[in-house]
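User: Predict the complex.
Assistant: Input components as received:
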Amino acid sequence: MIRDLCIRQPITVSDRRLAERCARGRVVVIDDDAEILLALCALFELEGYACETYDSAVAFLQVLSENGPCFPGPCCLLCDVRMPQIDGLELQRRLKELGDAPMLLMSGSSGAPEAASAFRAGALDFLIKPMKAETLLDAVTKALAVSAQRQHQRTRRDELATRLNALTEREREIAQRVALGQRNLEIADALGIALRTVKRHRHQVMEKLEVDTLVDLVHVIDEMK
Amino acid sequence: MIFDTQTGFLSNSVLGLLISLALWTVLWRQRTLALHLWCGGGLAAAGSSLLFALRTILPPVLGFTLATLLAFLMLVLKLQAVRLTLDAPEPASRLVILILAFLAGHQLLLLGGSESLRYVMVSVVLLVMNARVAWWARRLGRRGGQRSADWIAAAFAAMAIMFGLRLLSAALGASHPRLLTHGYDSLLLALTVTFGIIVSNIAWLGLALERLIGAQVTAAAAQARSEENRLLSERIAQLERQRSLGLLSASLAHELNQPLTAILTNAEVAQRGLRSSGYDPGPTLAFLDKIVHNTERARQIVEHIRGFIRPARAPREPVDLAQVILDVIELVAAEARGQHIDLDLRLPQPPLWVTGDPVQLSQIVLNVLRNAIEAVSQGERREIEIRLDQQDGQARLHVQDCGPGLSPAALRQAGQPFFTTKPQGLGLGLSISRTIAEQHGGDLALTNAAGGGALAELRLPLRPMRPN
């Protein structure tokens, strides 16, 4: 869900403050109880996080579909299970198709089936209301770390994909054969081209993928498989 | 001469008159036909005895015809009194025919027949009539368990036996076949009649007293039973209230957890704020305000629950029906939200006042709403229409769901105790609600709505004046 959001540029002083908070972590809280939203928002802001609150899953999905710009940084969702119209578990199912922000669910009166289905759908934690601030902040810290890791992986994959796209058809073929462990001579024989040409292509590949050694090249090709 | 029959008749006449009048006075408040017949019979006996005593100086019409007729009439009346008490009276026409037949027979024998034949006929008739009274009195004693009736039976049996003995002694020639004699037979006659008058009248008084006590005992037992029933139905209603609240407990726990979560989080934010940045009263005060506010919210929820499970009061206070409905909706709102059910509520602008107990009335509303929630919880459309309005001097609450409605069989049986269509139901909710509605002078009807779904309609009489 973060993937397609455009990056927002800080302009004013308050923008910059928000951007700093976002860089630390952004917590999206969804609960139909306004008092709880206010309290949780105060807690997260006190802890230096950015906090967005929505009083229903519908409102959140609406904002999400508008796809507005936001500041970069890890992000997690904290969502109540029991809500009118779309409940927490349903939102979790819908978001699974949309993105990968880690999800924390909370509930006031949950049975085991609810929690089990939340975990099965990939919830990072299931908090029982009323929860201690420490428990909540621990869960949020963990979720933000997961988010940061996922974002990092994604950035790197995006970068590598761009680099791989810069290769020509022939260069990509040679890079794959190199990664499979074939020597230059074998590649030249297999493709029916001169050894010198193979060497030149190989050099181009190293240059475009920004790798220095054969080991790095193999890593990059493996990562992109 | 052993004993003069005339003296016996005279004294028995006075005794019979006095006792009959005394009995009539004592039991006057009962004023039943049986009492009148019994005492009338007593007076007839007194009259008859007097006439017998004065036979020698009276013309034959009085001394013979009227005296014997009164004696027969006395027995007819007493017999009828006993049979009336047994609820098996003899038809009036038969009594009239009997009296006329006796009169005709007596007159025939008086005019044409011999004196001894007439004596035998009268004695046999009186013997038979006394025996009949004794037999019916015995039946009364046996059927009603009324021991006093046995004494009546004994008194009349003694008289029957006395007539038998007199007949026997006349037949054997030991005495003259006539009424006014001076031997042992006349003593026997006087003593038996005296015994009969005293015992049978006292026994009748005893019967009346037994009946009176019996009626009082029955009334007391009935009152005790109705009191017990009332207490029991109150207890059942209260249990049902607690049970229905128990079924809502999951959503109520969630409801209560919301303010608790806000309280805990606010408290911890204030704590952390104070710890990290020293004392800054501004934001800390704001968090404390929120804690107070949310504590109040939690208190109100608890208050609702408590208000619902407390024992019912006497149903005699003005109640704003709309407020009752709003309170119950507070209780079920969480449950409805959890199941994504839309409660479409429309209440009238001026409050509708009824007379009753708000707790009992809210039990009806809760029961009806819970049924509706259960009916729509499995369906596509999850809407419940709640309307309150005024119609013909009655407040009308109308709860319609868009569930599957009720089958004809369920519709017929719904509201009977222990009938339920739910696997975990007790089948008491609707019957209790209906009882409460009736106790409040209204009714609760369950039908299928024209557009599908079940429709519950509660009608309660409006309170005439709006209270201050």
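The interface with chain A takes residues 250-251, 253-266, 268-269, 272-273, 276, 287, 290, 293-294, 297, 334, 337-338, 340 of chain B (CB under 8 Å).
Let me know if you want any component modeled separately.
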